[in-house]
Design a protein that fits this description.
- The chain has six helices and nine strands, in the order ααββαββββββααβα.
- Strands 3-4-7-8-1-2-9 form a seven-stranded mixed sheet. Strands 5-6 form a two-stranded antiparallel sheet.
- The radius of gyration is 19 Å and the shape is globular.
Length: 200
């Protein structure tokens, strides 16, 4: 991986953060962020022990990562708290939060607990050529359950959850390995129950 001038990476990060703020204001991730990827960029994230998401090329990134998978999150905010730049490797790591527009009874916003972020590889010309997101999936699920219980989970998100639960195909989502069958799942639940009941 080539080295890049520190100033160029800092300018890329500045443009990226500004584009994210524009996307949040407009509720349009494609328009604000799509051009910030190289034509052959890759963008992915983990979706649990059995599945991954991967978009190959700018068009798939716009259609799938910034389009389909961001439906229902147009009004969410993803403020960056800290950014680390490695100009020798041309890589950046940004730590962000996931903040829902919905509010609890005390007036605070629903927010995913835990650590979230993105690992980027710079491709020159103020564009990313690779991105990998990371977040606490368990905390995301817990927040979605809380939002659903209070009738505040947006319809597009509910539809995607239903599709996943039914094993229906979703753009860019592929299995890491065959999902465990019912018997294997029951065996795992039974083993965990025994641990809980026996205290170890």
């Amino acid at each position: 991986m080539p080295a890049y001038p520190r100033a160029e990476l800092e300018e890329m990060v500045s443009r990226w953060l500004a584009a994210n703020r524009d996307a949040e204001r407009a509720g349009d991730w494609i328009q604000s962020l799509g051009a910030m990827y190289t034509e052959d960029a890759e963008y992915g994230w983990n979706m649990g022990p059995d599945q991954e998401f991967l978009a190959r090329g700018r068009q798939q990134i716009m259609d799938w990562a910034l389009g389909f998978h961001m439906e229902g999150f147009e009004q969410w905010r993803y403020p960056y708290d800290h950014v680390l730049i490695d100009e020798a490797r041309g890589e950046v790591i940004g730590f962000w939060r996931q903040v829902s527009p919905a509010r609890r009874a005390d007036g605070s916003h629903y927010e995913v607990a835990g650590l979230g972020g993105s690992w980027f590889r710079y491709g020159g010309n103020h564009q990313w050529c690779w991105q990998r997101d990371f977040f606490d999936l368990g905390n995301v699920k817990a927040l979605f359950m809380e939002l659903a219980a209070n009738g505040q989970l947006d319809a597009p998100v509910r539809r995607k959850i239903a599709r996943l639960a039914k094993g229906q195909a979703m753009p860019g989502v592929y299995p890491l390995h065959p999902a465990p069958g019912l018997l294997a799942k029951l065996k795992g639940y039974y083993a965990m129950a025994r641990i809980v009941l026996s205290g170890g």
